[in-house]
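so my prof wants the structure for this chain in the tokens format not the other one, which i didnt know existed until like an hour ago. anyway here's the sequence
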Amino acid sequence: MNNIAAFLGGHPLLAHLTPDELARVAASAQWLEVEAGTELIREGDADKSVVLLVKGGAEVLKRNAESGENYVIVRLEQGASAGEMALLADAEGTRTATIRSCEPSMVIRIDFEPIWQDSANDAMRVKLLSNISRDLSAKLNTTNQVTVASIRKELAASKAQIAMGMFTVNILFLLAIYTLSFRTLMDLVIQWGSNWISIGILAIMATAMYVLIRRSGYPPSMFGLTLANWRKVLGESFLLTVPLLAGIAILKWIVLLLNPDIDDTVFSIVRQVANGEFDQTMLIYGAAYALFCPIQEFISRSGIQSALQNFLPPSNKRVWLAIILSNLLFAMAHAHLNLTFALLTLFPGLYWGWMYARQNSLLGASFSHILVGVWIFFVVGIDKIWWALF
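here's what i got, hopefully its the right format
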């Protein structure tokens, strides 16, 4: 009894009570040690007991009238009280929620029924009701904050779903047009050359992605369109790309070693300069290639990968799912050139997709793409190997 009275004297719900009043409350109280899953208060009951959580944890549950299922509303921590609303209700009032322990706990249950029925306790009832009102006001303020946060979260989720829906519609629209016009694209490639057709497809897709991003309502930085920490991003991109460049040179050296009939060197640019084959036209081609690399990365990273990363349901596999799917879609857009070439664009794309997810910046992936592309086509050179092997 003394231990109960000592704990009750320090609890906010019983503040300002005299020692005599605390003794009367303690006389109606009892210690309870309960296991996880014990119902301390049951929705629909008509008792007027209040539970003080001395140790452990509990949760407030509300029953769904239609399904009969209980839903957790809030978790109660050590020191919390529950059941005070019954003291504010009339004699026929019933519990509006269930209180259930969610771990082994120690509680004090106070039966206020005899106190409420004795007119000698009128002064104490006024103090208790004042304390309850103050406690409920604080809980209401907390509930309001939680509700506002929940509403904001739901609005953000709804906004993401709308953005994902618009993204899906646009992608399906583009893929449908691309698939329906595939035969025409093949004829145009034969007539005009693949470069002009590729430029046209890139221009259409980039425009569509730009419009989609502008209409999404999200900041450009969410799609990697930012110059924040650009020095760090470029430096890291360069360091991550150097091993790839070395691997490409080693791979060509191995191919030449296994195919001595191919008349080439590891670095074709050296042979071209020595033979006087290098001219300003190659510089123009190189500059044009470097110009279109960011456009390609904009489509696959900012337009497709970002949308998937940000708007797909949260999961551990979401980032890699976004990387793989965005590169498959982008590789499909090269199918009019050559199926082998389309598949070859997939693998470095996975690397740049990983880099983009790591940095959340289009700058790093674009810079790496430029380095690798210029290295492959204009420094190492793959033209002779390509025709010899494919």
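also thought this was worth mentioning. Strands lie at 29-34, 39-41, 49-55, 58-63, 70-76, 81-82, 98-101, 105-111.
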